[in-house]
Amino acid sequence: MGAPPPPPSDTAASATSPEERAAALKKQGDAAMDALHYDEAIDDYSQAYALSPDPALLYNRGRVHQARGEWPAALADLERFAHDASPELRQRVPKLDELLAEARGHVATVTLTSNVDGARVLVRKTQVGTTPIPGSLQLDSGPAIVEVLAEGFFDWRRELELKGGATTVLVAQLGTKSTSGVLRVSALTQGTRVRIDDAPMSGAPAEAIVLAGVHRVVVHADGYDDKETNVVVAAGETKEVALEPDRRPALTSRWWFWTGIGVVVAAGAVTTYALLTSKPADKGDQFQPGQVSAPLLHW
Q1: Average pLDDT over residues 102-120
Q2: Could you give the C-alpha distances from 156 to 15, 112, 115, 153, 278, in angstroms and in order?
Q3: Is a pLDDT exceeding 50 seen at residue 286?
Q4: pLDDT one-digit tens code per residue, 79-96
Q5: Domain of residue 90, CATH code
Q6: 126 phi and psi angles, rounded to 5 deg
């Protein structure tokens, strides 16, 4: 753990002009950062920037976010610094391009659209906005569960891997409970794939929001015969169906295998008889898957 947080600066309290208070707060934030008191450092830098929007404060705050693993916030501050800083200030950060590249590698971009306005959008159980989402979302890369929730509609949920530096496009089609239901298909057979009404789904278990009515479900697995059934789903219902593909019988148990063997045996008997029967030569036929180190900005 770091040292105790530094006490509030007397200079910051007694400074009169916004620039003087900002400079004192920055100095206080630098001390908090050196002591690894990240919350205090971010608060000091943010207050200082509100008083005097010096790009150096963005850089230092971005480094605090980076240290805390808050990559989208770190990238936003570092990119703003790169845009606003003078050439002279940028020269004081020779590894800026490397810092930006590192941050971008940890940030995934997500664009999400939905057929329902006002739905809550949650990523990793934290609300990030409501639909319609303007522009795109900048999120930490890695495994994530994205949910879209609205009153009177079935929850929309996707579990996926968000890749750093890449864009993921999501379309959340919510089904109303007044006309739709949820159909869930499970199977114990490993590698089972599911189709609902001829639309390919993910591997079992699979889930889809469907209109009320009859739906055709087919399960398939390598080495097995497909199994299908019709399922009736009522409006507002969550219907769960367990369906296993049929184990394919062994080759020797199939009737056509033994029929083929019989034909071969019969043909062999004829050949054997012919070879054992001598004929005159003139009659009959003949047989054949660090971070960049850079200092804070001081002045």
Answers
A1: 97
A2: 53, 12, 11, 9, 81
A3: no
A4: 999 999 999 999 999 999
A5: 1.25.40.10
A6: -115, 130
CA distance 156 to 176: 11
Q: Is 78 contained in some domain?
A: yes
Find how far residue 266's CA is from the centre of its chain.
61
> Does any domain span residue 256?
no
Boundary-marking domain end, from 172, 189, 224: 172
How far is Cα 246 from Cα 243, in angstroms, rounded to an integer?
9
What secondary structure does DSSP assign to 147-180, as a single string? EEE-TTBPPEEEEEEEPTT-EEEEEE-PPBTTTE
Domain boundary (79, 105, 131) is at 105
Which of 149, 141, 151 lies closest to 122 in space, CA to CA? 149
Domain count, the chain: 3
159 part of a folded domain: yes
Determine the structural domain holding residue 227 and report its residue range. Answer: 180-247
Half-sphere exposure of 275 (CA within 13 A, CB side): 8
Which of 293, 256, 257, 287 shows the shortest CA–CA distance to 270?
287
Per residue in 16-48, pLDDT (tens digit) is 789 999 999 999 999 999 999 999 999 999 999
